[in-house]
Structure to design on (428 residues):
């Protein structure tokens, strides 16, 4: 496209190129705005209108409810692929051949041992610690055990760091949960697939054999795929911006985990379940909570509703809602919380406040119900989100490094005091 955008500032016109993405999205390229105009910047809190990078990993169309990883639809991937295939696709750009997948899996297993000294770090945390805080700390701590992983100037070094974290992360996830439950911290079983192994590491009792349940394996596989990437969201942007200073992969991921923890982002899955529980305890009066959500003087929000980008429906939520019915049915679990969730959804979809603001259930609305049916404690829900998001964060970090993006460093519009003369304390 040779068209340009014209900006007029104080009577002077400036032209900027229009860029078009592969799905015809249009962006004004303002890279030269400051230098052309002598210092003018754009202001966009929350980056609602700002593209922070060019990316070829994930495409989403919020109006049409489309989500694709590297061009493949989320519906098809959730149905036909497994989590490691999707991880490979996200990170390296193409679906793997059997040979490539076997090598990727073997390399991950080769790196699945976690230094035993990490246990000492876990031991220092109180049992009451939130597992997201523990996971973020342990992921950052891995850098101390593998200092060379920071230097990723070759593709080979980058690959090593990637398979290392893909191998060790599920162990850390399982350990975060087991520590909280007072269970011994065990290692995985290399004979198992990635997802089977995670489940065994989480749930195996020391005094009993662990029996795999294919329903749980399938459900977790699907949930991890649905969470695997979501373009430039809060945590992915955090990973990219941390990594842009050339901090290593593990600390970049640790900062992404911290960003994910918040209840407006990944922490919403825990918040949804707590909200549904509170509604149940309160007699199941969904109308009362709908009114609270609409009351501008009440900070309460309907957790699991709304999305910065999806303004029609979240395709992941549709898949998860169906999966919740199937998993609970297969496991023979009857959970009154599922009925409350469905009731709340029905009411919200007919409510003018929610219709006007285009607020629909998001990925987190039903996922907690499945996690709970699987026996995963509520505080672990966001950790499970992190496990799924790991390949997405890695892909975003790798793309940022491969494209040699500059350090992320936004500008600001300063609104503080102008120059003031310093007064010594006796004169204040
Ligand atoms: N309940 C009640 N009102 C809401 C909600 C909600 N869940 N979400 C947005 N609104 C209202 C908001 O008050 C505002 O109203 P008004 O225009 O009258 O001031 C309007 O809708 C627009 O909201 P916003 O906060 O400007 O929208 P945003 O794009 O900045 O925020 C969001 C998106 C996801 C943070 C927000 O919808 C929210 O807080 N949802 C609840 C938390 C949640 O479920 N988060 C998970 C997101 S999906 C998974 C992930 O990202 O990890």
């Amino acid at each position: 496209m040779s068209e340009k955008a014209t900006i007029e500032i104080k009577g002077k016109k400036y032209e900027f190129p229009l860029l078009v993405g592969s799905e015809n999205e249009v962006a004004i390229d303002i890279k030269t705005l400051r230098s052309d105009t002598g210092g003018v910047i754009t202001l966009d809190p929350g980056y609602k209108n700002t593209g922070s990078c060019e990316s070829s990993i994930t495409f989403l169309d919020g109006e049409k409810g489309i989500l694709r990883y590297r061009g493949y639809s989320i519906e098809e991937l959730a149905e036909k692929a497994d989590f490691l295939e999707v991880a490979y696709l996200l990170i390296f750009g193409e679906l793997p051949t059997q040979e490539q997948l076997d090598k990727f899996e073997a390399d991950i297993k080769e790196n699945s041992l976690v230094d035993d000294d990490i246990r000492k770090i876990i031991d220092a945390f109180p049992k009451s610690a939130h597992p997201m805080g523990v996971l973020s700390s342990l992921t950052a701590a891995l850098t101390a055990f593998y200092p060379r992983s920071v230097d990723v100037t070759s593709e080979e070094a980058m690959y090593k760091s990637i398979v290392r974290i893909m191998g060790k992360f599920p162990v850390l996830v399982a350990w975060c949960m087991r520590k909280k439950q007072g269970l011994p911290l065990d290692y995985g079983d290399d004979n198992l697939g990635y997802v089977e192994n995670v489940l065994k590491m989480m749930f195996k009792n020391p005094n009993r054999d662990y029996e795999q349940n294919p329903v749980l394996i399938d459900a977790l596989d699907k949930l991890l795929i649905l969470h695997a990437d979501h373009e430039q969201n809060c945590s992915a942007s955090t990973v990219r911006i941390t990594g842009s200073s050339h901090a290593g992969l593990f600390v970049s991921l640790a900062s992404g985990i911290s960003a994910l923890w918040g209840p407006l982002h990944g922490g919403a899955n825990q918040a949804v379940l707590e909200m549904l529980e509170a509604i149940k305890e309160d007699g199941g009066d969904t109308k009362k909570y709908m009114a609270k959500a609409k009351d501008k003087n009440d900070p309460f929000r309907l957790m699991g509703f709304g999305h910065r980008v999806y303004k029609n429906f979240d395709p992941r939520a549709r898949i998860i809602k169906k999966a919740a019915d199937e998993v609970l049915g297969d496991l023979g679990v009857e959970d009154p919380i599922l009925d409350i969730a469905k009731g709340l959804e029905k009411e919200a979809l007919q409510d003018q406040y929610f219709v006007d603001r285009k607020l629909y259930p998001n990925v987190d609305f039903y996922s907690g119900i499945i996690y709970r049916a699987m026996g995963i404690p509520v505080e672990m829900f966001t950790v499970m989100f992190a496990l799924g998001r790991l390949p997405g964060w890695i892909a975003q970090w790798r793309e940022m490094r491969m494209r040699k993006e500059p350090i992320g460093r936004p500008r600001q519009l300063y609104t503080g005091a102008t120059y003031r003369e310093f007064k010594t304390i006796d004169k204040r």
The pocket of carboxymethyl coenzyme *A is lined by residues 46, 233, 264-266, 268, 293, 301-308, 357, 359, 362-364 (CB under 6 Å). The first strand starts at residue 4 and ends at 9.
